[in-house]
Amino acid sequence: MNLYKHLINYDYVNSFEISSLKKALVLPISNDGIYCKFFVCKNSDHSLLALNLIIEEIEIEQKEIEFFLSDIKSRIKLFKLSKELLRQKEINPLKMEEFFNHLLTKALILRVSDIHFETLEISMLIRFRIDGELKSFYIFEKEFFKSISSYIKMLSRLDITKIRNPQDGRFSFEKIDFRVSTMPTISGESIVIRILDNLNVKDSFDNLNFSSHIIKSFKEILCLKEGLILITGPTGSGKSTTLYSLIKQLNSQNRKIITIEDPVEYKIEQVQQININEEIDLGFKSVLKNILRQDPDIILIGEIRDAFSLSIALQASLTGHLVLASIHANSSIETISRLIDLKADKFLLVSTLRYIISQRLVLKLCTCNEKGCEKCNFKGFLGRIGIAESLKINEKIKKYLMEDDFLIKIENYLKKLNFKRILDDGLKKVEEQKTTLKELYKVISS
């Protein structure tokens, strides 16, 4: 049963002692004087509340009830503010600011990466993405969505009258950047705010929670003057964070660094960051064509997406530049296959490719050891850690690349070397009790 199918009356929730609700493991929904609705779980005991009403029970997971009750006061405050705003004929900007700032502050405390505002059939829903998982945070009347949508658009300098077309914008709060995306849907509109906290970009690889052999590879990359470095993995595997961390450590007074991004996520002082914008003819191809005229030492290409961007990356790394880029592939070997599919010249690959780092993010076990606590939002996991494999393109691999059946030959060569694959790195993290086997296989197989 989904939480968002029911509008919670937080005034009714507030009529109970929160400690009693936590003990009974129930979440009140509504009360019409005869019937009352409650979210319950298998371990609930509403008899502890001594109610003299007919109770309708709606069963959900215990962790959802615990998550809602752990910070119910925040939701009650949001409810009071949104109710007050909905009653007013004209929106009170100070009240709306109070509502929105309270929501953002809560999101930052909970380490949220994205805030989702969605219109549903009878309600509006606010969801938080925490450690890769979406969690329902606040449900309210659908009519309120128009007010919150207008406020977000105004804050992001977007057209508040435009709901039939997608829009992109940005704003800042407490020295943190927020990227806004709006999209029309059949039920109204969807707005997603990505939280771009520069503190997430580490200036030391020891803080990225990678294994020692991966950190050693990163340190070798920092010493390179030229060549192509590829960071690979599926969407949401932490490629951007790794690239930004590399750039942050390569950044110095005697180097010119240029990045080509779509869009720029984190701002780095002294680095020339280019935000791709097709609307003003600042397209990916035109920027790539002219990038070398800017006399860079280091180039970051946000994503190698086609044969053209790959050819520019190879040419730049061949002419004395260090090029860092991301590419979608599931492993280092698959990356080589993908490069060949994109018509990469084998001679250029052999001459330029230095390292392929393939990575994933797995949930990190909380100190509660999977039991679930307030600190980890009753998930049993707190934060994520990197697992990776690092393929250094040595002379042997270069030799095999120029031959027929090169993928089979490289695979056989790596087996003889006892090459540590992502799975091996993940199993080590399981042994160290940093994650679970179930979580590892879920991430590896997805």
From TrEMBL:
Q: Which residue range or ranges hold the Bacterial type II secretion system protein E domain? A: 292-306
Pfam families listed in its UniProt record: T2SSE
Q: Report the SUPFAM superfamilies cross-referenced here.
A: P-loop containing nucleoside triphosphate hydrolases
GO cellular component terms, A-Z? plasma membrane
Q: Where are the transmembrane segments?
A: none
Q: Does the keyword ATP-binding apply?
A: yes
Q: In the record, what terms sit under GO molecular function? A: ATP binding; ATP hydrolysis activity
Q: Which UniProt keywords apply?
A: ATP-binding, Nucleotide-binding
Q: Which InterPro entries match?
A: AAA+_ATPase, P-loop_NTPase, T2SS/T4SS_dom
PANTHER family reported in the protein's UniProt record: PROTEIN TRANSPORT PROTEIN HOFB HOMOLOG, TYPE II SECRETION SYSTEM PROTEIN GSPE-RELATED
Q: Which family does it belong to?
A: Belongs to the GSP E family.
Under which name does UniProt file this protein?
Answer: Transformation system protein
Q: Which organism is it from?
A: Halarcobacter bivalviorum
Which lineage?
Bacteria, Pseudomonadati, Campylobacterota, Epsilonproteobacteria, Campylobacterales
